Amino acid sequence: xxxxxRKTVGRTLGAALLATSALxxxxxxxxxxxALAQADVAQPKPGAxxxxxxxxxxxxxxxxxxxxxxxVVSITSHIQPEADEEQGGGMPGFGHGGGQxxxxxxxxxxxxxxxxxxxxxxxxxxxxxxxxxxxxxxxxHVVNGAKTVSITMDxxxxxxxxxxxxxxxxxxxxxxVKANHPLPFINLGDSNAAQPGAWVVAVGNPFxxxxxxxxxxxxxxxxxxxxxxxxxxxxxxxxxxxxxxxGPLFTQDGRVVGINSNIISPSGGSIGIGFAIxxxxxxxxxxxxxxxxxxxxxxxxxxxxxxxxxxxxALALPSGGTEDRGxxxxxxxADGPAAHAxxxxxxxxxxxxxxxxxxxxxxAINVSQVxxxxxxxxxxxxxxxxxxxxxxxGTLPTDxxxxxxxxxxxxxxxxxxALSGITPNLRQQLDLPEGARGAVITEVKPGSAADQAGxxxxxxxxxxxxxxxxxTAEASHAIREQLHNNQAVAxxxxxxxxxxxxxxxxxxxxxxxxxxxxxx
Length: 520
Known about the structure:
Layout: H1 6-29, H2 35-42, H3 62-68, E1 72-79, H4 83-86, E2 93-96, E3 121-129, E4 135-139, H5 140-143, E5 146-152, E6 158-167, E7 172-177, E8 199-204, E9 212-223, E10 233-236, E11 248-250, E12 256-265, E13 274-278, H6 279-292, E14 298-299, E15 302-306, H7 309-314, E16 327-332, H8 337-340, E17 348-352, E18 355-356, H9 360-368, E19 375-382, E20 385-392, E21 394-395, E22 417-420, H10 424-429, E23 439-444, H11 449-453, E24 460-464, E25 467-468, H12 472-483, E26 489-495, E27 498-504, E28 517-519
Antiparallel strand pairs: 1-3, 1-5, 2-12, 3-4, 4-7, 5-6, 6-7, 8-9, 8-11, 9-10, 10-13, 11-12, 12-13, 14-21, 15-16, 15-28, 16-17, 17-18, 17-19, 19-20, 22-23, 23-24, 24-25, 24-26, 26-27
């Protein structure tokens, strides 16, 4: 997250202009491809140059840009900086393409004097109108903490704006302006239709240069860049820089498929890796912000993890690529929506309301978009067999006695582990709750199947497959049953207070996928 000074920006823009000039010169004096071409260069002919016909012209975005630019606005926010921003913290890497907040504390890249800590700074970003009544969509980090906000239209008109709602989780905000006439606006399109390779155009206010247009292609979809629980960004190589945040990403039909939000860059400038929030996410969030000023999300009360190849084998799941495996339920919240719908640990959710689920992140995103109180139909696999469950979706919170197993055992299970019962001493050492039951792994043999699967001393086996185990004897018996036919073993374990599934496979059935945790 790189910081820029105005001087640095000036040098950067100057370097860019010089580079462009250099390229122009090279185009005029580039090396010819033949002796005839050399003769032509050496002895130019008089008269106008005929460039000839172009058999494969590049796409022309002039008409598109002329149609959409009037609905794109530049946003100026007067913001009270946070203490850490004023002191010049931050690291290169992921950053918001806007001029303020989590990505870039523009315009001050240095530590500010103590007496200026309460000084308001000016930050700039982008946005666009989505109706004729003056409703504007932008990024939350463009206006978060702003004392005043104003927008500048493409024709230079400046209007005061007020924030009617914002959502940190999705990094979206909705503004409102008043005008004496209907305003031009643009429609949100279907981001699912924006396939990798499709041409896209970004319009925005980079470095205060309003009305800037850049073009590229959709590089990828569904990117998780670690910004939040609902990451599913569109990646593009269209140039996105500071100030582009909140601006639209168009397809060639003039519809918005994304809101430019983040970049990856070691320097803070565009290197062709930018990210946009999908328009389908924007539709859901903006509708709620317009209605109530805040966002409520659905949840079903489960913790889920990805299904790797070994786990798919252990759970007898249908064969197929990783994109078809779904989200494996590691735990079900007591008295939660999933528990009421009879969802169980070991179930694999493959679809929500007909929408395919490939991993826990997709589960979280799809469930969050279901209105709380409504019903969702879950397609699941239980013991390898497909079923349908109906769950009443709850509202995601806004924050986010048993008996000890005294029988100890040091018996290896053929997987390279030694087990012990949950003694009072182990319960205290591992900080286990009073109701925890199962078998504690006390030793993992180096190079064994358990070691390769990532099992660790201190892990507590609470289930084998879909069977709950409460002692070392039960765990040993269940593991032997799974190994009888040389099949992979799905262990439900408790690690650092978090339940997860780990697939332990004999040498001839081990898979190499990594696991990905998530919540839904």
